[in-house]
Amino acid sequence: NVPSDGIGGDMTFFDDFSGIAADRYIFAALAGSVFNVANLALCKGIAMLGLALAFPLCIGTAMVLGTVLSYVLKPSGNPLLLFIGVFVAFCAVCAAAVMHYFKEQQQSAAREVSLADNVSKEPLSGEGEPSSFRVAGDSGTASEPSMTRKLVVCIVGGILMSLWNPLVVLATNDPGLSPYGEFVFYSAAVTVTSLFLVPLIIAFPLEGGQGDSPGAVLSKWSSTPCVCHVYSFLGAVVWTFGTLFNAIAGNSKKLSSAESYAIGQCAGVAAIFWGIFLFAEFKGTDMKVKGLIVLVLVLYVVAIAFITMAS
Prior knowledge:
Layout: E1 2-3, E2 10-11, H1 22-49, H2 51-73, H3 79-121, H4 131-139, H5 147-172, H6 179-203, H7 214-223, H8 226-250, H9 257-264, H10 267-278, H11 287-309
Antiparallel strand pairs: 1-2
Helix pairs in contact: 1-2, 1-5, 1-6, 2-3, 2-5, 2-9, 2-10, 3-11, 6-8, 8-9
């Protein structure tokens, strides 16, 4: 037996699907499909921008739009406190974008200085050019994606990410699916759409450039250390429980769906800490960038506090 509403009232798993309108199943499946596309954009954004910046940009955008849409569909709590929190979260997104701009400028300048120092120390080749210039020119390395492309991928991912929770609200609105029933169709949609999205994103990468063939991707996958696959699996398990718990909380009598969704976006704060302390993404930046990091963190914490008080 499972709780029918995330709080109490026992019913069997299959009872959850009896007497439910067909559009509730469609909304749940659409929520999973939209989330999957958005999550792929987020993963690509992280690869291009780094965890500490892509996550706040994408999730921050999703937090603002998703909370507003969820509240419109199912109003609850103090709207003033809720939307103050959403506004502060939007300020955090803007601060993260400015932080990225300065970070990229400073690290790009540092790379140019380092390259110039290395070239000046190299002996000239027979043709009078530093050998590193010839090697770089012959390698055919793809150019770095532009800053505009990086930001667009993250923001579009955030807009798409903002739609999955409103679709969940539509799937669970009375008379609708329980959080558990909704999650079955949500997860099934994620699995099925992955079979089409992954090959598509491999052939046409969001960062631009030439795509990889299925054979090359399979070769890379099989040669990847087993521990990396284990980490991927554990990440999926953590995401599964986190998403399910978020849906249960949004269907409880303590929090509305909009409030539960907004609080769940505090993952952006954790991601910034991972990027700073584990991956050293801000190494070599000046105090201006470090000050913006602190500002982004403070704004996120304040936003989450207001949203929590709104309940």
